[in-house]
Amino acid sequence: MRSCMLLAAAIPLVHGVRIIQSNDDGWAEANLRTFFNVLDKAGQQVILSGPAEQQSGTGSNDAAPTTVDADGCIHASCPGGSPPTGANTTDPRLNYVNSFPVTSIKTGIDVTAPKLWNGAKPELALTGPNVGSNVAIQAPFSGTIGAATYAAKTAKIPAIAFSGVTGDPTAWNAPTPLHSKVYADLALNVTQTIINSGKPFLPDNTFLNVNFPKVESNRCNSASQFKFIFTRINTGLVSARDANWCGSTRLPWEADVILFRGSDCYVSISPGDANDKTTVNDAAVQQQIINKLKPILSCLP
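Above: the chain sequence. Below: its structure as tokens.
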């Protein structure tokens, strides 16, 4: 199998939080690998277990991995005919699974991570940043969110799904796009805030759906320019009242924040119900998550 991404051998995993990472765009996608590098540099223990090929829009599908077809892994990251699962030749923390995102993260949680961590399993699951947004009605179909909800609901591991509006599929070995760097820094900010809040990192059966707006050369081009807004996945027109936050008991809608206010450099963070991928409608649970994220949250004007 061809060498992918890192040239140095894996360093001993002796510090930080144990993190499993995946996506639905493929294990060799620039957004995913850039975030891996940022997490590693921040001192976290991170293992990547992503699909061998592009699997966007596959939701919560799950099937046994199969031999890689003649075209090979995405971005020529492994040759055709490669085994159903495999690892980077120079860094065993980088792994592909030739199946769906849910299968990929499940394999990482149950097989790969314990093998590399002397039997221990992940403490936190991070998926993405996805190439493209995952807001509102997109959520049920997203493989990135499907992998996160599997972790939160079935594996009982706190999970965060990240997605970004800007970008096209980009190979791990191409020049790193600006948006990949910015999204990785923003995702690290959210991740570190949750870690710093202490365990349990999130309430049971919940996940965070985080969406980043457009990154442009002349604005929203560095992490320091962004503000984090606590939002809803669905509008909640007929739902119970939300937690009292920013002077209101109705949280803003993530689609409005990302798609219609994107030029204001707002990041949406929505509390998701891992059972159905909609908003957590329990105001008390919402408040628990707000309390964890308070150090970075802002209010809309």
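The two ends are 52 Å apart (CA to CA).
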